[in-house]
Amino acid sequence: MNSLFDLSGKTVAITGGGGVLGGGIAQYLAAGGAQVAVLDLKLEAAEAVVSAITTAGGRAVAVEINVLERDSVRNALDQCVKAFGPVDILINGAGGNHPSATTNPQQEFFDLPIEAFRKVMDLNIIGTILPCMVFGKAMADREEGIILNVASMNAFKPLTRIPAYSAAKSGVKNFTEWLAVHMAQEYSPKIRVNAVAPGFFLTNQNRFLLTDKDTGELTARGQSIINHTPMNRFGAPEDLYGTIVWLLSDASKFVTGITIPVDGGYSAFGGV
Ligand code: NAD
């Protein structure tokens, strides 16, 4: 059974690899024998993840990337190939929301700065599409490869207060379906594209919405999320690993174009 899920020797590139979820995923895959290129806008964050991986005996390299600039993404691909050879797996983990694109009593939807709106849209949707173009082209040339995008609960139903993030993640789910079909039909059925949709995980990009910055207590929104999560807790990075290994490995070799919720039951719960 283990061979079905085996990723040892695979080269994985993960954007947002210096972040909370991306960093955890990078370390888990490296511990399973994959060689991991940890790609992030913040090189120090990527280096910290690489240091944890190499200290544990794994293989990894840190690479600076801006997922919004084609030259930067191309350069990152070159560095991955130089370090480990062709990239077998791309994980698009860079993303997140921002307070400036979030409504609140002081900042109505009508007044949201369009630049802030655009930044969140760009990071989540263009920041997924551009690496798919650059790394996807190399996969098309080799006629094999796996792409994993990171959507969110708001890919299925928008969440209050975060219109840009919701629209963008819904776009990530739609684009995952489009690219899965395109790659299989135009290039190779051995190129698969799927997504995970994490429920609520307390990380840097949503801490301001879920906890009070002074007391650390749950905000009303944070408590409401827990109340709507039948498993009654936030997710932890390790909650994602099993689903991700399945989607990246031969265990899912006839699966493409899907977005899997990993959410403690949130998306199944009607609220009553
Ligand atoms: P995080 O903020 O810890 O990590 C995001 C990483 O992306 C950071 O290291 C950041 O430096 C990097 N990044 C930002 N802009 C970049 C750019 N232009 N180029 C390259 N890297 C860039 O957040 P996280 O919660 O670990 O998020 C990881 C992914 O999971 C994101 O796509 C996020 O939207 C998604 N997600 C998170 C949750 C959650 O509850 N935390 C839920 C659903 C989906």
**Uncertain regions spanning at least 5 consecutive residues:** none
Structure class: alpha/beta
Number of domains: 2
CATH class of the largest domain: Alpha Beta
CATH superfamily of the largest domain: NAD(P)-binding Rossmann-like Domain
Regarding quaternary structure, how should these chains be classified? single chain
- Biggest β-sheet: count, sense, barrel? 7 strands, parallel
Give me the count of strands.
7
What's the pLDDT, averaged over the residues? 97
Arrangement of strands in the largest sheet: 3-2-1-4-5-6-7
- CATH domain fold name of the largest domain: Rossmann fold
Q: Write out the distinct hetero groups bound to the structure.
A: nicotinamide-adenine-dinucleotide
* Distance between the ends: 39 Å
Strand content: 5-15%
Number of contiguous helices: 8
Radius of gyration (CA) equals: 18 Å
Structure description:
The protein has 2 domains: 3-199 and 238-262, Rossmann fold; 204-234, no CATH class. It has helices at residues 20-31, 43-55, 70-84, 114-142, 163-186, 207-210, 220-227, 238-248; strands at 11-15, 35-40, 59-64, 89-92, 145-150, 191-198, 259-262. It is built from 8 helices and 7 strands; from the N terminus they run E-H-E-H-E-H-E-H-E-H-E-H-H-H-E. The protein is of the alpha/beta class and 272 residues long. The mean pLDDT is 97. The chain binds nicotinamide-adenine-dinucleotide.
List keywords for this structure.
alpha/beta; 2 domains; 8 helices; single chain; globular; Rossmann fold; 272 residues
